[in-house]
Amino acid sequence: MTVLKTRMVTKNLFKKIAAIVMIALFSLSAWALDIDVAKEQGLVGETPSGYIQSVAKSPSAELANFVKDINAKRKQQYAAIAKKRGIPLKSVEDLAAKKAYQKTKPGHFVQDKSGNWNKK
To answer: Which of 14, 23, 100, 111 sits a CA distance of 20 to 30 A from 43?
Structure first.
């Protein structure tokens, strides 16, 4: 092979490898979604019910599933606390919402009781 052909093959191979690496990084970032990242990106916010919700009216399926999963885990924890303390689930949810609002970082979204999203 000539030097020119070798350089072209090497350049094309490099481009293919770079594309594969970019796809892999993108895939990893999609799997790496956690609540802090979602809040930082303005995708979700805390609600007065003690659960999170998508800030967008039409979230992607991935985000909707993420919110559903987080809220199911929260509900499980809230129910365990309510049972242990012998109090209604609603009381635990209300206290959790209050604490979540207090812990929300500036610039992250919180929902008011009328359903409007506000940045803290």
So the answer is: 23
- E-strand ranges in 1-120 read 44-46, 52-54, 109-111, 117-119
**pTM for this structure?**
0.71
Beta bridge partners of 109: 45, 119
The tens digit of pLDDT for each residue in 5-32 reads 556 555 554 454 444 434 433 433 444 4
**Residue 53 · residue 70 · CB < 8 Å:** no
Residues 6+ apart with CB under 8 A from 94: 50
Task: Please name which of 42, 34, 50, 36 lies closest in space to residue 119, comparing C-alpha atoms.
Answer: 42
Tokens (6 digits) for 28: 């990893």
The answer to whether 93 and 50 are in contact (CB under 8 A) is yes
Calpha distance 34→104 (Å, rounded): 15
- How far is it, in rounded angstroms, from Cα 78 to Cα 90? 9
